[in-house]
Amino acid sequence: MMNENDDEQHEKANKNAQKKCAKYWPDDSMDCGDMHILLIHSEHYKDFVVRTILMRKIDEIRTHRVILYQYTGWPDQTVPLNVNSLIKFMKKVRDDHPVMGGPMVVHCSAGAGRSGTYIAIDALCQQAAEDKRVDVFRFVNNARHQRVHLVQTLEQYAFIYEALVEALQFEDTTVPLEKIGNYLKELNHINTVDRRSLILKQYNVSTFRGVHESSILSYFMFINCSSSRACYIPDVN
């Protein structure tokens, strides 16, 4: 499928602790049937890896460039261990992908739970930017008519809301190392209107984050799960 398009392509894979599918990218180079695949560059981050590979048929000169984004912090049938990490991953993919670039393929082991959750968050963030509103239920319901079992668990469905809160209510606070000094000065600057510094505002947002989340997750009740991770269940009372 990736070999059918001449344009640059981006592909995202979610790592699964249980082996369900074969590793299809090389550490250096590999032949797969009549295809030769060559790794030309890789960038390693805390929770994901970005690889650039070249593909060509063994009897042809023409090559296809594929950029593979592999998110490694998302176990099967659960949710990412760090919501902020996933949002940064999504931003990286979107920033790298040209507006008129080639098709983007999203997959996990089964192409249902994690893939559906990722697609929903990404699409709803775009919907929020364009329409100033989101409709999680309608999007997931419509998506399931195209592929069954998209967003497999209640925890994944609730995580869509949690990720939207992170992406839409909290600004990106990533700072390049060479700018950290100037950013610290900005954090400590006192606003003349409310007499508060940005660092105090950030701290308050982090401290009272549960209040912000409850405004969107109004029909979810927070509980402790046996998996030692907090999750949400519908409040049926």
Q: Helix and strand layout, with pairings?
A:
Layout lengths: L8 E6 L14 E4 L2 E10 L3 E10 L6 E8 L11 H14 L7 E4 L5 H19 L4 H11 L7 H16 L10 H9 L9 H10 L1 H8 L3 E5 L5 E5 L3
Parallel strand pairs: 1-5, 1-6
Antiparallel strand pairs: 2-3, 3-4, 4-5, 7-8
Helix pairs in contact: 1-4, 2-4
Give a nutshell description of this structure.
With 237 residues, the chain is an alpha/beta fold. The chain contains 7 helices and 8 strands. The longest helix is centred in the middle third of the chain and has 19 residues, at 113-131.
The coarse silhouette is globular
Given the structure, what is the number of helices? 7
N-to-C terminal Cα separation, in Å? 48 Å
Give the helix level as a range of percent: 25-40%
Number of domains: 3
Describe the protein:
This protein is of the alpha/beta class and 237 residues long. It folds into three domains: 24-72; 74-97 and 104-172, Protein tyrosine phosphatase superfamily (Protein-Tyrosine Phosphatase, Chain A, Alpha-Beta Complex), CATH 3.90.190; 175-212, no CATH class. Helix content is 37%, strand content 22%. It has seven helices and eight strands, in the order E-E-E-E-E-H-E-H-H-H-H-H-H-E-E. The chain has a six-stranded mixed beta sheet, with helices on one face. The protein has a two-stranded antiparallel sheet with strand order 7-8. A hairpin with a 2-residue loop joins strand 2 (29-32) and strand 3 (35-44). 20% of the residues are buried. Residues 84-158 form the Tyrosine specific protein phosphatases domain. Belongs to the protein-tyrosine phosphatase family.
